[in-house]
Write a structure and sequence with these properties.
This protein has helices at about 40-50, 55-65, and strands at about 15-20, 25-30, 30-35. It is about 30% helix and about 25% strand. It has one domain (about 15-65).
Length: about 70
C-alpha cells in the first residue's frame, strides 16, 4: 500500500468513493481521513482490519459501536 500525501493548503476536497462497498473516504488533510458508509458491516470490517488508523481520542466511542452487543 502506497502513501498518499494531501497538502493541507489545497483548495480541493479529496474523496475516494467505493461504490461496491458504499463507502466514502474523505482525506481532510495530511493528518488523516474520515470514513463514512451506509453499511455498518463495511465499517466494521475496516474497524477490524485497520484498527491502527483510529485516533486515540475516538477509539473508545468507535469501539463501543462495533464491539458491544446491540439489544
Amino acid at each position: 500500500m502506497g502513501v498518499l500525501s494531501v497538502c493541507s493548503f489545497s483548495p480541493y476536497d479529496v474523496y475516494f468513493v467505493n461504490k461496491s462497498r458504499n463507502t466514502i473516504f474523505h482525506f481532510y488533510d495530511s493528518r488523516g481521513l474520515d470514513i463514512v458508509s451506509n453499511s455498518k458491516e463495511a465499517l466494521k470490517e475496516l474497524y477490524l482490519k485497520r484498527n491502527e488508523w483510529i485516533l486515540n481520542y475516538d477509539r473508545e466511542r468507535i469501539h463501543l459501536n462495533y464491539c458491544v452487543e446491540q439489544r
